[in-house]
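Record type: monomer structure entry
Structure origin: computed from sequence
Chain ID: A
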Amino acid sequence: MESTPKTKKANRCAFENCNARVVKIIGDCRYCQQKFCGAHRLPETHICPNLATCKQASFEKNSNKLLNEKCVKLKV
């Protein structure tokens, strides 16, 4: 039983000129919906086309966390 070229390509990293195997679960980019190997799994390393969206989401998440943990001086 031979695998079709489409199936074989689906198991490879989507980064240009990379033929490494895709990493399950953590290799899926939630911003561009492509599959990558361990070396290219981060949006910064595979030059994600939706990197601005990724950065904005991270900024908002961090901003909300910091505001919720803010210490307020008691007024006596």
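Annotation 1: The mean pLDDT is 84.
Annotation 2: Residues 51-68 form the longest helix (18 residues).
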